[in-house]
Amino acid sequence: MDDAKLESQVHRYLNLGFLVREIADEVNMPYKRLWKFMARKHISVRNMYSTMFSEALQLLVY
Questions:
Q1: Cα–Cα distance between 15 and 10 in angstroms, integer?
Q2: Is the dihedral of CA 37, 41, 45, 49 positive or negative?
Q3: Confidence at residue 34, expressed as pLDDT on a 0 to 100 scale
Q4: What pLDDT sits at residue 44?
Q5: Over the stretch 4-25, which tens digit does the pLDDT of each residue have?
Q6: Rounded CA gap, 56 and 49, in Å?
Q7: How far apart are CA 32 and CA 43, in angstroms?
Q8: 3-state SS track over the chain
Q9: How many CB atoms lie within 10 A of CB 55?
Q10: Where does residue 24 rank: exposed (0-12), middle (13-18), buried (19+ CB within 10 A)?
């Protein structure tokens, strides 16, 4: 799998709320190697969230 395709898959799974360990299982890659890939591509799990979750949270807050 090429890097661009893997990167888009990782972003998609993060937006769906998957944990990194779950993503590693989905893309059939060892957990540690996925973390290294994410670090190399500057992919952070901190800023990723599902749009649906954010909308639901706004409804609860307001």
A1: 9
A2: negative
A3: 95
A4: 85
A5: 999 999 999 988 888 899 999 9
A6: 12
A7: 14
A8: CCHHHHHHHHHHHHHCCCCHHHHHHHCCCCHHHHHHHHHHCCCCCCCCCCHHHHHHHHHHHC
A9: 10
A10: buried
Sequence letter at residue 38: M
CA distance 22 to 42: 19
Report residue 26 as tokens. 């989905």
Task: Name the residue range of residue 48's domain.
Answer: 3-61
pTM above the 0.85 mark?
no
Place of tokens 């944990």: 19
Instruction: Give the HSE-up count for residue 13: Cα atoms under 13 Å, Cβ half-sphere.
Output: 20
